[in-house]
Amino acid sequence: MDMYDHRPGSAFDNSRFGHVDASASFFCTRRLNIGNRRTANVTSKYQQKQFVCANMSDKRSGSICKLNGVEGKAPFLIGVAGGTASGKSTVCKRIMEKLGQVDMDQKQRQVVCISQDSFYRDLTPKEIAKAEQGQYNFDHPDAFNETLMYETLKDVLAGKIVQIPSYDYKHHTLKKDEILTIYPADVVLFEGILVFYFPEVRKLFHMKLFVDTDSDTRLARRVPRDINERGRDLDQVLSQYMNFVKPAFEEFCSPTKKFADVIIPRGADNSVAIDLIVQHIRDILNNKRNSEERSISPPKVTVTPVGSPSKKVNASADIIFHRPH
Ligand SMILES: Nc1ncnc2c1ncn2[C@@H]1O[C@H](COP(=O)(O)OP(=O)(O)O)[C@@H](O)[C@H]1O
Ligand SMILES: Nc1ccn([C@@H]2O[C@H](COP(=O)(O)O)[C@@H](O)[C@H]2O)c(=O)n1
């Protein structure tokens, strides 16, 4: 039985990478450390139109999946939604800090974070020109490549290494020369304004958090952030906010709060909520570890033949199952 009830993996849509120079194709082999406990040789392939290292088996047994014949773990996937500048990234950072994951090599991490912004669609030159004038709606669901998002998360759940571009807010493009490699981890956080909007994506999460910060605070944080970090001027930030960000929040993001398992008022300021979530994650990881250890050394099981219930076939068995009549 699948511990987290995932569906089997499927084909990968790479349409967003259609214009990557074919010379970017290469193969690499690296040693992969899975959850600090197992090490496997993984041959990864990254080429035009492809940024998932797909050279691994997708077959899974319980929460265990096979990586080139070596068993790896399916992660616990947590969705973190909330309005712009609500503190999603900061909450994820706090969770990672409290789980001791920040000052750690990427490959060793048991908890990793992926941003939904890496799944913005590529824009045409005309759309980029609109974006530069604050006239493109980045807060509408159509701005995202839903298929790619879904397939990438499926790969993450299948224990595969995935490679995703980081996002360049200054130029409204994906940084295809700055690819983030996400190694298999025990916990994967996926944060973004619309992570609960797409039903198929939403179903993949084991736990859903919604960071609920009031809109005045969010705007007060977004303005300096966009000016200082995202290369915008005040007029641009305010007109984009009034024309697109605020209406889209009300229409598409805010209604997804109802899907959350946990709502975090005040975001990263809410250390009580964050501590509870961290403790819950620890409990889940401990249970998962215990059940994996049990599955690695299964108890001896003996079937007592029907009609001879008193006859012990194996005297050293720890558990005896009786066949149903
Ligand atoms: N609790 C907080 N107190 C003060 N500033 C915060 C707090 N949480 C986030 N910020 C700041 O607000 C901005 C947006 O936060 P961030 O976590 O990036 O939000 P999101 O990921 O939801 O867009 C950042 O500049 C961040 O440093
Ligand atoms: N080129 C872009 C892409 C996105 N945005 C805005 O980013 C917001 C989502 O990121 P948060 O960290 O704030 O959650 C979203 O509201 C978009 O408007 C942008 O301005 N430019």
UniProtKB/TrEMBL annotation:
Region (Disordered): 290-310
Catalytic activity: uridine + ATP = UMP + ADP + H(+); cytidine + ATP = CMP + ADP + H(+)
Gene Ontology molecular functions: ATP binding; uridine kinase activity
Class of this enzyme: transferase
Signal peptide feature range: none
UniProt keyword list: ATP-binding, Kinase, Nucleotide-binding, Transferase
Similarity comment: family membership: Belongs to the uridine kinase family.
Protein name: Uridine kinase
